[in-house]
Design brief:
The complex is a heterodimer of chains A (281) and B (312). Chain A is mainly alpha-helical. Helix content of chain A is 75%, strand content 0%. In chain B, helix 2 packs across helix 13 and helix 10 runs antiparallel to helix 13. Classes of the chains: A mainly alpha (281), B mainly alpha (312). Chains A and B meet through helix 1, helix 4, helix 5, helix 6 and helix 9 of A and helix 1, helix 2, helix 4, helix 5 and helix 6 of B.
């Protein structure tokens, strides 16, 4: 009986690994094709499939930049918006979360329930009203309209609250108060250093979300020199590059590789961050 | 009353009641930036969208008139809006079922003490990768992969699976299938992480005592795992629904940005964008799409959340 059980387990395990391998291929293949084709010439790509890189990356690069597409400007535009959004979103999310976790003010429960509700509300659907309002303020085609809303990011506060509840040490706060530190000073000098791992996790998510954000930028930004990377991707699909497959793949690879590098460095933070955002311990 | 700023009072109150703190109004100061930011960048735009939906405002003219429910009547008069809503639901449901299914199976395997799958962390990290990649770039990538001269056609023809290259993206069913696949591909890894977090927080002792009573694996899954996962499942369900109803990047950039072929992947947000970017810039009409989808999504999301939660 026990022998049977072990044999069964072995068969199931074998089946599981086969299934996992299939999923692995499905997950990786499109990304791998993208990176490989970014190094192959258009002629090679048209001739047939290959899973091995070739040596035409620099040719593709010259074609890519030779047609009036300023990819690096787009890259730095995206970087600027993403970094600014990340800093604002992390700081204000932790500030708000700290307020909820540490102080017992009236309406605190209502406010934290409100945050949960906000997480579930599709705010993107008010983009038209947002656009018209920003245009009245003269903030369309201006990065401020992409960056400033990060002050009120409900998802960030939700995560920050979960995180701070596990790291806030009341005694340290009390000690700070006895030493005469101001409340905001305690937040800056005592809480912030403690909250670094949470801030990193929060920051990665804010960065990735901003880096990948197409819809808002697409609606709010209009002049070409302010285009962010996802908007340039749309240009890549246009007529100028119609037959330059190698260059198109390279352009797409340049938008994706920075995120893969960030992921390779911080995957631990990212995976635990997703888990923490959803589970209330 | 204890005087806050006198040294003696402070140390005395600390000695008596270290946790007692009189300045809790500071909480309001800490949440104030969020509240102000939300009023300016969150609430007012929602109000403004609602207001615009009752007007005939365009981006070009400075005049705008209150026209009551005309925008909404027009939306229901032609079929496009209803089609967009149906499409969005279809594309979301078809991706959500395999997403939660595959993620559930893998999470059970990954957390099983009997199976002891190796390299769980690595598998999970790889499956999650597509979630972080830029959806706009992913859509452009699949557009290239499935184009007439693209690698998929080359492979299918070489392998004898297709007699000749075909226009995948001119076939409504295949195009829909691709959108569903890409959404699934981007999200099943994220769902695995969330489900596993939920499963590992279930106390092992529950399973141990069930095993003593002779419960089978399937039985334990249905009687212990599923009920205790309920809050997590609701969370996944609701966040996925809210995201799905706003689906834009993938269907917009996979074909011509008008939901082609024959409107098969026209979603709510694509329709809203088309109204917004039409030659006259009918932002009144675009707002009415936003308002209806906003109401539909919020009612469904909050409805599911509260309806399913209260029962516990």
């Amino acid at each position: 009986m026990l022998k049977n059980y072990n044999l069964n387990t072995k068969i199931i395990r074998g089946f599981i690994y086969v299934f996992l391998l299939v999923l692995l291929v499905i997950t990786i293949m499109p990304i791998w094709m993208l990176i490989v084709n970014a190094t192959r010439s258009t002629v090679e790509i048209q001739q047939g499939l290959s899973l091995l890189p070739s040596r035409h990356m620099f040719d593709n690069y010259n074609i890519l930049l030779g047609r009036g597409l300023n990819l690096w400007r787009g890259f730095f535009n995206s970087l600027f918006v993403a970094v600014a959004t990340t800093i604002i979103s992390v700081y204000f999310s932790l500030l708000t979360a700290y307020g909820i976790v540490v102080y017992d003010f009236k309406g605190k429960r209502l406010f934290s329930n409100f945050i949960v509700v906000l997480v579930m509300i599709p705010m993107q659907l008010s983009i038209v009203g947002f656009y018209q309002y920003m245009s009245k303020l003269g903030l369309t085609d201006n990065y401020a309209s992409l960056i400033l809303p990060a002050i009120a990011s409900a998802g960030g506060v939700f995560f920050g609250k979960q995180y701070l509840e596990s790291v806030v040490i009341q005694d340290l706060i009390d000690a700070g108060r006895v030493d005469g530190a101001s409340e905001i000073g305690i937040f800056h000098r005592i809480m912030m250093p403690l909250a670094v791992p949470g801030a990193v996790t929060l920051g990665i998510f804010a960065f990735v979300a901003s880096w990948n954000n197409f819809f808002n930028a697409f609606i709010l930004i209009s002049s070409i020199e302010k285009y962010t990377l996802p908007m340039l991707v749309q240009t890549l699909r246009g007529d100028v590059y119609r037959t330059e497959y190698g260059a198109i793949y390279l352009g797409l690879a340049i938008t994706i590789v920075p995120i893969i590098v960030i992921y390779a460095l911080f995957s631990r933070y990212i995976v635990s961050g997703i888990a923490m955002g959803s589970v209330k311990e | 009353m204890v005087l806050e700023n006198s040294e003696g009072a402070q140390s005395r109150s600390k000695a008596l009641r270290p946790r007692r703190f009189k300045r809790n109004y500071y909480g309001y100061l800490f949440i104030a930036p969020f509240v102000i930011g939300f009023l300016i960048f969150g609430l007012y735009p929602v109000y403004n969208t609602l207001y615009l939906s009752f007007t005939d405002t365009t981006l070009l003219s400075s005049e705008s008139n209150f026209i009551g429910l005309k925008n909404f009547e027009r939306l229901f008069a032609d079929n496009v809006f209803v089609t967009a809503v149906k499409n969005t639901w279809l594309l979301w449901i078809l991706n959500f079922i395999p997403q939660i299914g595959v993620a559930m199976v893998l999470s059970v395997w990954f957390t099983s003490a009997r199976l002891k799958v190796r390299g769980v962390g690595v598998w999970r990290a790889i499956f999650f990768l597509p979630n972080l990649l830029m959806p706009a770039a992913i859509a452009a990538l699949f557009f290239s992969l499935f184009s007439f001269y693209g690698p998929v056609n080359q492979f299918m023809v070489r392998a004898g699976l297709l007699p000749e290259a075909m226009q995948f993206l001119q076939n409504a069913t295949i195009t829909r299938g691709l959108v569903v696949f890409i959404q699934w591909w981007m999200w099943f890894g994220s769902t695995i992480i969330i489900l596993m977090a939920g499963m590992t927080s279930i106390p092992l002792s529950l399973y141990e005592s069930a095993m003593v009573d002779g419960a089978s694996g399937m039985h334990m899954f249905r009687r212990i795992t599923l009920p205790l996962l309920k809050p997590i499942l609701i969370y996944i369900f609701v966040t996925s629904l809210v995201g799905g109803m706003q689906m834009f990047d993938i269907p917009y950039l996979l074909t011509d940005g008008r939901g082609s072929p024959s409107g098969s992947i026209m979603t709510n947000n694509i329709l809203m964008y088309l109204k917004f970017s039409s030659s006259k810039g009918h932002i009144g009409a675009a707002s009415s799409v936003g308002v209806l989808v906003f109401i539909m999504t919020t009612v469904c999301a909050l409805g599911i959340f509260y309806f399913l939660r209260e029962k516990d």
